[in-house]
Amino acid sequence: MRPDSTIAPAAPPIVRFDNLTLGYQRHPAVHHLHGDIAAGSLLAVIGPNGAGKSTLLKGIVGDIAPMEGRVRLHGVERRNIAYLTQQSGVDTAFPIVVHDFVALGLWHEFGAFRGLNRAAQRRIEAAIAAVGLEGLENRPIGHLSGGQLQRARFARLTLQDSPLVLLDEPYSGIDASSARDLAALIQRWNAEGRTIVSVLHDLEHVRRDYPQTLLLAREAVAWSATAEVLSEAHLARARRLAETASETASRSEAEICRANVVGSEHSPLENRRNAHEPR
Ligand SMILES: Nc1ncnc2c1ncn2[C@@H]1O[C@H](COP(=O)(O)OP(=O)(O)OP(=O)(O)O)[C@@H](O)[C@H]1O
């Protein structure tokens, strides 16, 4: 037997982070990230609040540009990535019913369909049925429960038919039965060969469903098999890094406030204005 015949070939990357730094107004939120997300993998992204998890997803879809380094995509175009943002960002006041909301998942095919033909209609109906929302097609999205809305958003993602699915806290604020059904749908997508990247907080769920985990605390604390990543040592290090980052942030905010106060006390402009104020 040839020695290399026993080694399974590594799956090619669908996303590669190349010294990636992402942030806002020149403040980095994710630092110098290197690594590959293998095609077909099921990856959890975990970390304390403010660790940069959502920022990383925004960087992958190109909502924010890298401050340094880059994100390389292989076998998927940026505009075709299926991306579920946090549910809190959904405008439920927008006047649209479930059917049309889900149909938006076909937006990239609308040109080819020139409107919704019968095949498209069947796909929409199947996607609505797959998330258990039959009968609610004509209900405005503002009249759905949190779990129903999340089901509708998953149906829309299904129609996108993307090889890469990014989910930002997919179970946040939904009932247990919706969470179970949507977790099963994610497993099905992965079994179909899609790559799934989910930002999650529930470590039990991560242990149960996600073979690979990236633990972020602005930098990558650990990124490998879930059991290895979720060691007490790694989690403690992530907590320490998050605390240091938030202390640094509050110190620099305090310094800005102090500089403003001191600046206003000694500002020549202020002194001039005071000198001309009527007494
Ligand atoms: N639009 C923004 N403008 C400025 N700073 C931002 C913006 N969005 C996020 N940040 C900051 O970037 C850092 C990372 O935020 P991010 O939302 O990526 O963290 P997270 O790990 O997803 O947190 P959580 O678990 O609380 O959702 C935080 O310090 C946050 O305050």
UniProtKB/TrEMBL annotation:
Query: What SUPFAM superfamilies does the annotation carry?
Result: P-loop containing nucleoside triphosphate hydrolases
InterPro entries the record matches = AAA+_ATPase (IPR003593), ABC_transporter-like_ATP-bd (IPR003439), ABC_transporter-like_CS (IPR017871), Metal_Ion_Import_ABC (IPR050153), P-loop_NTPase (IPR027417)
Supply the Pfam families for this chain.
ABC_tran
Gene Ontology MF: a single term: ATP binding
Gene3D superfamilies, A to Z: P-loop containing nucleotide triphosphate hydrolases
All residue ranges annotated as the ABC transporter domain in the record: 15-243
Q: Per the similarity annotation, which family is this?
A: Belongs to the ABC transporter superfamily.
Q: What protein name applies here? A: ABC transporter ATP-binding protein
